[in-house]
Amino acid sequence: QVRLVESGGGLVQAGGSLRLSCAASGSIFSINTMAWYRQAPGKQRELVATITTGGSTYYVDSVKGRFTISRDNAKNTIYLQMNSLKPEDTAVYYCRTYGDVYWGQGTQVTVSS
Fold first, then answer.
1. DSSP assigned state of 103
2. Residue 35 contacts by C-beta under 8 Å, 6 or more apart in sequence?
3. Which of 65, 72, 89 is nearest to 21 (CA)?
4. Are 32 and 46 in contact (CB under 8 A)?
């Protein structure tokens, strides 16, 4: 069993920045690729970015150049640095593991115009 705990969400004005963290605990040997997803009100949950254990990354087009995913394997933590935030980035952000699939509880990000 793996427990994922996100933090770092909040309210920010458009153009601002936030840094999300996701700390993993438990049977972390089963974790390989990790990802950030988000779900806006009334919309389906969507992939935002992924990062492999080796550090290879993928971003959805809408966040390329603004968001950066990173990981600290020693701390079993991944991060999402979000810059130049837009109102359309407003959502609950979740981290997820691949391989054995686990989800965090989510953290709310609200961007005001």
1. B
2. 47, 48, 49, 50, 51, 95, 96, 97, 98
3. 72
4. no
Residue in this structure with the two tokens 């959805």, named with its chain if needed? 60
pLDDT-derived band at 62 (thresholds 50, 70, 90) equals very high
Helix (H, G, I), strand (E, B) or coil at 63: helix
In tens, the pLDDT along 23-61 reads 998 877 657 899 999 999 999 999 999 999 889 999 999
Tell me how far the alpha carbon of residue 83 is from its chain's centroid.
13
CA angle 52, 35, 108 (to 5 degrees): 155
